[in-house]
């Protein structure tokens, strides 16, 4: 069985459901946005809620993907940085409970976490304290991390540290791994466009992007963007929300239909699409089937608050995957 290694911001998600959006105005937050905050600001936000009302889970884009892959039955590992504090210990322990081997580097800075306010319409507003997670650097990466793995997945949120990304991707390719990147955010793409082109053309096999990220990366709409992206790497995927996803590899093109579900919280939708897709690749399924599995897993995670799905849900997903792969 092939194994998948991920690298990203080791963030613990702390989710609160809000009754209306008034509190967003009160806290001067932009609905649906993501803003970086200090630890003190995080405490102020949490003070507006009753203790025990939060839902906690390991978070961060690549971490979500790796946890999803593990739940689907693929051995996986994760590289990140935490502190020896309550949030950091939760992240490491929760990763192990999810079946993920953690390669956690240590920092004296408080562990990173993301306070997520979920509106009644399922829109999420993210307030991120990166903390120790942002201190992961090239010196933390060791060639032996990659031994025994076949895929290496990274999140675009790390690309501000060019040396870290280059070092990790080079080590992965030297070890013979298939590499993938999720572009993460159109802001990240805009700020690192030249560097992203450089590393993708040199080291990356698979790109995941949503509609906005694909536009920022290519200047084109999804159907044209996925074609352009596929000329830079082996496989390009553009996720277009309720309209499904597009996959291009060479001259092969697939338009994947979405699963119609009632969305409660869109947290992690793209991350879990990548989990399903990479699970499919690790099992050598055709690209169209990989896309369908990605769409399936993504559709189930938006039905819950946060990214933690019950064992029964994972069992249902496994049965649906079995049916998909028998056809």
Q: Your description of this structure?
A:
- This protein has a single domain (4-8, 64-108, 135-326), classed as UDP-N-acetylmuramoyl-L-alanine:D-glutamate ligase.
- 39% of the residues lie in helices and 24% in strands.
- The chain has twelve helices and 14 strands.
- The chain has helices at 22-26, 39-46, 61-71, 86-97, 162-174, 186-191, 193-203, 211-218, 222-230, 269-282, 287-301, 311-326, and strands spanning 4-7, 11-17, 34-36, 55-59, 76-83, 100-107, 113-118, 124-129, 151-155, 178-182, 206-210, 235-239, 245-249, 252-256.
- The strands form two sheets. A nine-stranded mixed β-sheet has the order 6-5-1-9-10-11-12-13-14, sandwiched between helices. A five-stranded mixed β-sheet has the order 3-8-7-2-4.
What is the topological layout?
Layout: E1 4-7, E2 11-17, H1 22-26, E3 34-36, H2 39-46, E4 55-59, H3 61-71, E5 76-83, H4 86-97, E6 100-107, E7 113-118, E8 124-129, E9 151-155, H5 162-174, E10 178-182, H6 186-191, H7 193-203, E11 206-210, H8 211-218, H9 222-230, E12 235-239, E13 245-249, E14 252-256, H10 269-282, H11 287-301, H12 311-326
Parallel strand pairs: 1-5, 1-9, 2-7, 3-8, 5-6, 9-10, 10-11, 11-12
Antiparallel strand pairs: 2-4, 7-8, 12-13, 13-14
Overall number of domains: 1
Strand runs, count: 14
CATH class, named Alpha Beta
Strand order of the largest sheet: 6-5-1-9-10-11-12-13-14
> Low-confidence spans: pLDDT under 50, at least 5 residues?
none
Distance between the termini: 22 Å
CATH topology: UDP-N-acetylmuramoyl-L-alanine:D-glutamate ligase
Report the sheet-strand fraction: 15-25%
Averaged pLDDT, please?
Answer: 93
Helix content bin: 25-40%
**Largest β sheet strand count, sense and barrel closure:** 9 strands, mixed
Shape: globular
Instruction: Report the structural category.
Output: alpha/beta
Compressed to H and E, one letter per element, the order equals EEHEHEHEHEEEEHEHHEHHEEEHHH
CATH homologous superfamily designation: Ribokinase
């Amino acid at each position: 069985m092939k194994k998948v290694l991920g690298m990203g911001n080791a963030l613990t998600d702390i989710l609160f459901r809000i009754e209306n959006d008034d509190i967003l105005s009160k806290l001067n937050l932009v609905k649906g946005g993501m803003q970086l905050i200090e630890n003190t600001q995080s405490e102020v936000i949490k003070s507006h809620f009753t203790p025990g009302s939060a839902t906690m889970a390991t978070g961060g884009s690549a971490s979500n993907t790796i946890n999803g892959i593990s739940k689907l039955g693929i051995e996986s590992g994760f590289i990140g940085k935490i502190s020896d504090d309550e949030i950091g210990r939760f992240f490491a322990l929760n990763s192990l409970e999810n079946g993920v081997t953690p390669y956690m580097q240590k920092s004296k800075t408080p562990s990173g976490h993301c306070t997520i306010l979920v509106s009644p319409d399922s829109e999420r507003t993210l307030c991120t304290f990166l903390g120790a997670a942002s201190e992961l650097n090239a010196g933390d990466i060791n060639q032996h991390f990659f031994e025994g793995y076949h895929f290496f997945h990274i999140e675009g949120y790390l690309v501000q540290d060019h040396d870290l990304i280059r070092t990790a991707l080079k080590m992965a390719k030297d070890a013979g791994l298939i590499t993938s990147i999720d572009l993460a955010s159109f802001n990240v793409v805009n700020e690192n466009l030249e560097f992203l082109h450089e590393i993708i053309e040199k080291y990356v096999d698979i790109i995941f992007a949503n509609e906005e990220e694909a536009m920022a990366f290519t200047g084109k709409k999804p159907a044209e963007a996925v074609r352009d992206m596929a000329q830079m790497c082996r496989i390009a995927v553009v996720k277009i929300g309720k309209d499904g996803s597009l996959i291009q590899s060479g001259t092969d093109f697939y338009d994947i239909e979405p699963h119609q579900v009632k969305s409660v919280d869109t947290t992690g939708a793209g991350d879990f699409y990548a989990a399903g897709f990479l699970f499919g690749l690790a099992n050598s399924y055709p690209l169209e089937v990989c896309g369908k599995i990605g769409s399936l897993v993504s559709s189930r995670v938006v039905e819950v608050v946060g990214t933690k799905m019950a064992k029964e849900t994972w069992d249902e997903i496994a049965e649906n995957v079995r049916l998909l792969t028998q056809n």
